[in-house]
Write a structure and sequence with these properties.
By secondary structure, the protein is an alpha+beta fold. It folds into three domains: 15-80, Orthogonal Bundle (Arc Repressor Mutant, subunit A); 100-169, Alpha-Beta Plaits; 184-267. 52% of the residues lie in helices and 10% in strands. It has helices at 15-25, 33-42, 47-59, 75-84, 115-126, 146-156, 173-180, 185-204, 211-229, 241-267, and strands at 63-67, 70-73, 101-105, 130-133, 136-140, 164-168.
């Protein structure tokens, strides 16, 4: 599901988030304002709340007004959607690790309180880098395409402060221990197991398109996808890669069934 980050409401569902997820689930079927308002009423959002959210999303560049009373995801939202869908094949982005470390120099990041810094930090986090020294960020060099591809990805995600890069080869034992300590692998493994149990339990509950279940698919699905997108994809042996694989496979099934449930709900709305 495509959702706005940090959306606030009386619950974790908001009119803006509902609109984005409906247009993600069925771009053509949910393009008409009338159907979006009808969907909002099921979740107890007023027509005015939904119209305000549509206007805000359009002003933020996430929606375009195709015609009178018709909306679609903008190119910006589609790019976001493409990045979000990366979770479906993240494991294929890895390659065998030769014990080298990809190192990025970023000594000129923006002020921590700025939107630019948040964008830069998000890019580093989405590609699993950790701060090793002031201005020095590192990760195992086990992603396909190596350092050149990593730099391209970081720049496309908004990291505009790369001053240089290099590989750390043949690190001594102390340096390797220091580098490995940058990731809390025990916590990561626990999270794999907890999230896997949660997704499997939630999958068993997907029996009817009730509002409560629809909201759960949105919340749990989005939260799990965010977790997977930020997974550092560490080499085998450093984390429980089998449990991560099982989590991804289970999330595929949950996403498929959740989208079917949303489509059943959409089909009940008046045209």
């Amino acid at each position: 599901m495509l959702s706005l980050p940090n959306t606030k409401s009386s619950s974790s569902l908001s009119p803006a988030r509902l609109i984005l997820d409906l247009l993600d689930a069925d771009p053509e079927g949910m393009s008409r304002t009338r159907r979006l308002l009808a969907a909002g009423s099921v979740f107890r959002f007023s027509s005015n709340q939904m119209r305000v959210a549509l206007s805000r999303l359009a002003s933020e560049g996430l929606l375009v007004n195709k015609a009178r009373g018709q909306y679609a995801l903008s190119d910006t939202a589609e790019q976001l959607r493409t990045e979000i869908q990366r979770w479906q094949h993240i494991e294929s982005q890895r390659q065998p690790w030769q014990n080298d470390w990809a190192t990025i120099l970023c000594g000129n990041l923006a002020a921590e309180s700025s939107a630019q810094f948040r964008r830069q930090s998000r890019a580093l986090s989405l590609r699993g880098l950790r701060r090793w020294r002031p201005g020095v960020w590192v990760r195992p060099d086990n992603l396909k395409g190596g350092l050149p591809r990593l730099i391209t990805d970081l720049q496309s995600l908004g990291l505009d402060a790369i001053q240089g890069s290099f590989l750390v080869n043949n690190a001594d034992a102390d340096t390797e221990r220091e580098l490995l300590s940058l990731w809390d692998t025990e916590s990561l493994n626990r999270e794999y197991h907890t999230r896997l149990a949660d997704i499997r339990a939630a999958t068993r509950r997907l029996v009817a398109p009730r509002p409560g279940l629809l909201i759960e698919t949105m919340e749990l699905g989005s939260d799990t996808i965010r977790f997977l997108l930020k997974d550092p994809l560490l080499p085998d042996g450093l984390t429980d890669s089998q449990c991560r694989h099982a989590l991804i496979e289970s999330m595929h099934e949950y996403d498929r069934l959740g989208r079917e449930l949303w489509q059943q709900f959409i089909d009940t709305l008046e045209s």
